[in-house]
Amino acid sequence: MSEAISVPARPIRSASRVTPVTIFLWGLRIAALAVILYGSYQSISSGRLSGAQWRDLLIFGTSTGSVFALIALGYTMVYGVLRFINFAHGEVFMVGAMMAFYVANGLAATSLWIASPFVSLLIVFIAAMTTSASLAVLLERIAYRPLRNAPRLIPLITSIGASFTIQYLVSGLVGPSTKDFPRMEPLRGTINVAGSLIPTSRVVVIVVTVIVMIALYLFVERTRTGKSMRAVSEDQETAALMGIDVNRTIVTVFAVGGAMAGVAGALWGLVFPSLNYFSGFLPGIKAFTAAVLGGIGNILGAMLGGVSLGVVESIGPSLVLAGYDIPAFSQLKDVVAYAALVMVLIFRPTGILGERLSRDRT
Question: pTM of the prediction?
């Protein structure tokens, strides 16, 4: 009698279902691509802008996006560890920028500002980073740590309340008037890069951002503290059982994210020389948009998302909207930036590099 042979069952692939929602999303994708391609063709073929003007828009967008990327790092690092969005992070950036203004204003009254501009900038950076990092740590200790085990919505609402609190505290302390950063003469010239004259201030912003981002990446990937941060991001309980001080690691995450916001605050004066107590709101929202655009929870995604958002915001109106002869298209850069976010989320809901999620251990 022959023995029965058991044949393993093949997994049945679920047939992809075509639903009205799927049809609508594909129709929206095709329509969006058609609008972008037609507007771009019309704009480029009209010769409205020269090659040098396109280059200037690209450089301006890259430098602005660099500031967004530095702020976005704070959002994505906190989300990677605690899984909530710290909407007060824009105000952490604003306070760092405000400190950078007062330190720069004080140094501008001395000979050091002219004699040693880069030493002066270094002092401004250190002051802004220290202030923003201290404020971020204070926020974590007072506002977020007592709510760490609460439902995620509660810390989110708390962060919004902290944002308004910081705004109006700064308004009460320094006044609601707009502050103008002092100009630094060595940074008002241009640098010849591959035959193109680029404003020195833009070059400084891009170079500083690249250096800071590389340093942050190496810190997270190569140092013991960085490994602790990644372990806590994966599983706090297991990390604690392995001897990692979870509270100290979370404080470090807030401090590092705050320091990045401080660097962005110092660079803000080189990109946009005016500042007030409300200056953290819009950059904070755009930085959050950049973090989502790149993939919330992913450090490289935040960097890429920030630069991409700045470039799209700078080039998009002239590339797409100008092709449809829309009046005052240059004032619609915020619309283009958020439309770009919507398009990315339609095509790739997890962002450019995808969301970094903890894997369940078996």
Answer: 0.87
